[in-house]
Design brief:
Blueprint: H1 3-25, H2 31-40, H3 42-57, H4 66-93, H5 95-102, H6 105-116, H7 123-141, H8 148-155, H9 158-183, H10 189-215, H11 217-225, H12 227-250, H13 253-259, H14 263-273, H15 281-301
Helix pairs in contact: 1-12, 1-14, 2-4, 2-10, 2-11, 2-12, 3-10, 3-12, 4-5, 4-9, 4-10, 5-9, 5-14, 6-9, 6-13, 7-15, 10-11, 10-12
């Protein structure tokens, strides 16, 4: 198994675990408060991971350019928007289905990567992506059928709009991350990816933390009071971001995001056993269809 595949699957696991913990934090914090903890508490863990890798490998890279910092800032702000949209999508249909809507990110990332990065996917991978889209649409239709009017109505549901918007933001984030990694001089893509994580998360802490201080000052103290739970979110967020960034450094964005859709399996498990949500048969069927598409994507790329 290629290293980037194992790292991507690990990233999906960490991301699902972190998102589930954030869903629990919604009972203690506002939307922005629950979102900012992943960056605020993630930076120290990211620094530890970066420092540990640097001490172990002894690699180095050149001085970052202004364009590198711009790309990190763009990645940071689009990820913030994506996270808020994802959390907002949970309410109408629950954690599992809200996340499934965001999985259109794989398609959006593939199209954006083709346009902006010139990445090319084999035909079988595109077939796999199409099957994954069908699985997502099946989830969004909630058993109402596959007629065009039903599809259009389902796409206009709040959960669908928030989830698809989150997918677009995450797709654009991935593109910026990959380009930022290429802006750093050096031969160790992992070290450059870890440095990009720390820079991006630091910027995100300043951006969303500043917004929270300005618009919801009472939430600032609530964020610090929840440090026991929030620290867990930060640790998982840092670990997941490091894996995602490394994956983007080692493989095309379209493939990484497509394989990352295995997150839906972890999502179903967390939804059922961690959050106690009841799953319907059609939700499981749609999720498995998404995963079948991922298998084809991977088969086409190997």
């Amino acid at each position: 198994m290629p290293l980037w595949v194992a790292i991507t699957v690990t990233a999906a696991l960490f991301q699902t675990w972190r998102t589930a913990l954030q869903q629990r934090l919604r009972g203690q914090l506002s939307l922005n408060g629950a979102a900012v903890v992943r960056y605020l508490y993630g930076v120290p863990f990211g620094l530890m991971i970066l420092g540990g890798y640097w001490l172990l490998m002894g690699s180095s890279f050149g001085a970052p350019s202004a364009y590198f910092f711009l790309l990190c800032a763009l990645a940071g702000i689009t990820q913030i928007f994506g996270t808020n949209l994802l959390i907002s999508s949970f309410g109408p249909r629950g954690f599992a289905v809200g996340t499934a809507y965001a999985k259109t990110e794989a398609v959006q990332a593939s199209i954006i990567a083709v346009i902006l990065l010139g990445e090319v996917l084999p035909p079988l991978s595109w077939v796999g992506i199409g099957i994954s889209v069908f699985g997502v649409m099946y989830l969004s239709l909630a058993g109402k059928g596959l007629r065009l009017p039903d599809i259009l109505r389902a796409t206009l549901q709040p959960a669908a709009l928030c989830g698809i918007g989150a997918g677009f933001c995450f797709a654009f984030t991935a593109i910026c991350v990959r380009k930022a990694n290429f802006e750093l001089e050096g031969t160790d893509p992992v070290l450059k990816a870890l440095f990009s994580v720390v820079v991006t998360n630091t910027m995100q802490t300043c951006m969303q933390g500043g917004w929270l201080l300005l618009r919801e000052p009472a939430q600032v103290m609530a964020v610090f009071r929840s440090w026991r739970s929030s620290a867990q979110v930060g640790a998982l967020s840092a670990a997941g971001s490091c894996c995602w960034f490394i994956g983007f450094a080692l493989a095309p964005v379209a493939l990484v995001r497509a394989v990352g859709q295995v997150e839906i399996i972890f999502t179903l498990l967390f939804s059922r056993f961690f959050l106690g949500e009841k799953l319907k048969a059609k939700d499981v069927t749609g999720a498995l269809t998404v995963v079948a598409g991922v298998v084809l994507v991977l088969a086409g790329s190997l």
